[in-house]
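Example 3.
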Amino acid sequence: MKVIKSFFLMIKGLFVRERIEEDMLKEEALRTPMKTILLKLIRNKTAVAGFLVFFLIFCFSFIGSVIFPLDVNYTELTNMNIRPSQNFLRYPRELNDKNIVKIVSGVSFSVALTDDGNLHIWGTECNVELEGITELIMDIPEEIRNANIVDIEAGMRFVITLDDEGNFSGWGQTDQDQTILPDNIKRFMAINGCNEIVQIAAATMWSAIVTDNGRMYLWGSFQAESNYIVPADAQGKIVQIATGEVNMLLLLDDGTVRSMGMRGTEFYELVPEELMDGSVNVVEIAATNRNVVVRDDEGRLYTWGSPVDNLNKIPEELNLETAKYIAAGLNNFIAVDDDGDVFVWGAAQLGQYNLPRNINNAGVVKVFADAFQFYAVDEEYNIVGAWGNKGYIFGSDQLGRDIFVRMMHGGRMSLTVCFIAVIIATTIAIIIGLTSGFFGGWVDHTLMRVADVFDAIPFLPIAVTLSFVIGHEMSQEQRLYLLMVILGVLSWQGLARLMRAQLLLEREKDFVLAARALGIKQRSIMFRHILPNVFNFVIVSVTLSYASFLLIEAVLSYLGFGVREPTPSWGNMLTGAESSMVMRYYWWRWIIPGLFVISACLSINMIGDALREAMDPKSEER
Amino acid sequence: MLIRFIIKRIIILIPVVIGISILLFIVSKIMPGDQVAMMLPPNLRPEIYDVTYDAMFRRLGLDRPLYEQYFRWLREIFQGNWGFSSMFQGRPVLDVIAEPLRNTIILNIFVNIFYLLIALPVGIRMAVKRGSIFDNSWQVFSLATFSMPSFFIGLSLIFIFGINLGWLPLGGMPNAAMLEGLDYYIAWARHLVLPVTTLVLISLAGAIRYIRNAMIDALSQDYIKTARSKGLSEKVVIYSHAFRNALIPISTIVVGAVFALFGGAVVTESVFSYHGIGRLMVSAVTGRDRMLVVSLNMFYSMINVTAVLVADIVYGLIDPRIKLK
């Protein structure tokens, strides 16, 4: 062994230059205590790792939340519980050589129908496999794969298809049997003498078909029975339908339109008169959830519906005379003009405006827009650009919010709240510790009894109680301050005691005696001579209690007594995670925030431990 | 001598108890919600309601000045009358607490047994084999669990053993009406496994470090060198000389931990829907049950005060050098 070792040393000596051992006294003179501590820290691998991890988390939270602003009240229920991915827009390369007939999209997937009657699906699974029921969207059933499909349509989490033999089929979420053509509708179709389906349509919760003799049938879940009723003067003349969330627009064979579905919505009530009386010949219709846009044969666009998201404001740059194609996503309208320029208006939260560069020179003739994924195709029906919702890196939560962005803002919130709480606790501790140690006597006695009281009160129960009792009618912002104060006020005792004990210890030391002998004032001794010696403990304590505050904040917010929804914090993003549904199927909703809390705490604890070791001269023994 | 020591400790604790009671009294006064209205049945006719309201108001002594209310409340607590819970249809608080308290105590007994059985040998071995793989891996374990929110440990355990492996129930309590005899106790035990594991893991993190450091301090003393140089076997040195001396600091945290578990179980009980006082505490706060909240806080505080007292006494018993200075 020895021989091998010396051999290695020799080899090492060839390549690595030995550090010249400095004279011990020289080294001593060179290094201040601060330098020694720093050197020890840098040599400590865990400390460096801790610093690095914490730095990354810090940047993620503070820089990230500046780059990605958050609208705390934003929700998009259709996109709830989508697993982490970034592939919503990554269409298969083989589509490049094929002619696309149609592309439809749901919340997290898109399906393309090519002219050979085949389907291509991409994106991310948005359904879960409940016991015994397979509703997975990414598995196209065998019989549909083998059939020659002529038309497809997508609801939010299901797809319906029509093959060349007129068979209706579908797959995906089927809680309202949207993918099965009901028997009674088949009977109605037979009675009314129609045998061919010409159009299929799907919305969030229901499906509809239009037959060759202009009749429409619909089934699924509606909010009210009356929403099923097709206007009597329209039935038999329908050529095209556009579906919203609870309303529908029907295009009739005489070029007029009718709205149906839920009464009282802007969609239903605000149809312009000229579109119904026949003075305008409508050729194309499209509908988002709550808005409609129609185009007449002269290229004029009409739009009405809910004022949300400015969907009624047609962009001014869009030359109405040359508009030749309109499409509707879930919250957006898209128009293409004669030059192939693409215009988008409506909601902007999911990248709907991130048009691909050069899209306006690519000769776009059509944009397939459904949900939140948009695909532009050229004259040969090849995809030339895709934009919209790329996916959620960390998934989406129960309200369809992007967990990635909420993690950043939640991190900023948690880190800031705990930091201020630590400052409060440390300030109180230093003041009380110093007063107690300095004055002694009855002051010391009283303060230590107060510390005893705070020690005896159970932390979590009293924090929960106070946060509720004081904060129950406070605004969101005030509650944050309250949280900081509660955390700070309830946890100063440990450090205060330590300060006092150290003070008493240091006071008896020789250098204090020397200072006193020199006639230096009491206060000066306290602040100039003693305090710096105690300061090491403060730094270590601040670091370690920062980590524990992060945990406590997470626990309080998790229980609903800390930072409250909709303001995100790492703790309250975990609320509801104990439900077995979330645990089993929506793992990203609890594992990701949990991992962030853990890595933040772990890194801070690592730094704290390293600091303690670096500052404690006896630490080498341990 | 010992008795005098104990009495002195108790006298010191009296102002602490008074301080706590004043604090909790203030909390009960600023608690939202009308204390009287919550105790009255909701469907009274207005004129009867007013009369009963006034009567109740006076009966509870709310028309009296605050200090009088405080002393009245204190007196009643000593008499065992802890008020009435509004969440549980006006049942006495002590009655409401009884069953959850039993459950929490059962939970804590198991946790303490397992935790001590693991922490003591592991901590001692870590100190003896300082720097070994054993020591380092437990250090890493300790640091990791120390950095995890307690509910996350619980959730992970549920995820692994309850959902993925399906071995254990996800939480809750066995139904006493459906099971009989041995089956009931087996169901009980199965429901206890995950909460107990969670709490043991949480408690271990701090304890093994503490025990390790105490042992290292003890092992570096001169009398250990003396013992070794006398030629005593390593076993005797460790368990007879070092451990006995390390016991002094260890005893403090052991006593502390036994009592601290009552407070720490709040989160764990909530995660596992375990019907203990921790979960009762959370629901009492959200349910604005004034007396229940105050009583539970009082109860927790008393446990902590007792813990301090017991730790002091144990300290005095173990270390003959420590007598009240």
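Chain B touches chain A through 55 residues (CB under 8 Å). The CA atoms of residues 219 and 242 of chain B lie 6 Å apart.
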